[in-house]
Design goal:
Elements (H helix, E strand, L loop, with lengths): L1 E5 L2 E12 L6 E8 L4 H8 L6 E4 L16 E4 L8
Parallel strand pairs: 4-5
Antiparallel strand pairs: 1-2, 2-3
Protein name: IS5 family transposase ISRso18
Organism: Paraburkholderia humisilvae
GO molecular function, one term: transposase activity
Length: 84
Amino acid sequence: MHQTKKGNQWYFGMKAHIGVDAQSGLVHTVIGTAANVYDINAAEALLHGKETDVYADAGYQGIEKRCEAEAVRWHVAIGADSLT
């Protein structure tokens, strides 16, 4: 297991990346990674290939620039402090 720092807080262990169908609300993919793995690096494995739109948090900023993610439209939520 690895460690990662977010702000001034250290986190140790694992992180779950979860893919959920927007219409049904059912989970279709669950991936466990070390805590130091960036969300954006697990994104391709969360896609099953039938998506047209993907909604994600700020950990996925810049994903639309990756060639493996060009087939879908990304909607990434970013914090208000990131806009200034």
